[in-house]
Amino acid sequence: MSTPTSTALTAGTTAPDFSLPSTSGEATALSTFRGERNVLLAFFPKAFTSLCTTELCAFGEDYDAFSAAGVEVVPISMDSVDVLKEFRAAHEMRVHLLSDVDGTVVRQYGVLWSSGTVANRAYFLIDTAGVIRWAHAEEHPGLRRENAEIFERIRSVIE
User: What's the domain count of the chain?
Assistant: First the structure.
């Protein structure tokens, strides 16, 4: 079985800023949310896989609840923008997806899987000051957190 290539960032750490191309057609920088919205960075391994599809569709289904909690969901994978646009359109997702093709941000956050071609599934809840308030990297990419657990984390560390 493969393993992560490094240790994921932990709660209490300032989240590294980045700017990545998005399915919106514009680059998205983490710093644009500072002072405005909390952010859930959700790293996922691969578009069009069953678990990633389930997870990202669930984010869309709970889009209004995340918004009401003051949290912007920002999914990131190492897929190209074109693949992510197709994926988003095929499943009518409400969230835009960010592309980290070369894995720079995946490496910054310590969630590159040992294959070197995908991110491990991981979550970073970042407050409006840019501090990671909750971090969770799965034991392997085949696992995921349910939104109910993520909302519990939001209530316990953000609200």
Answer: 1
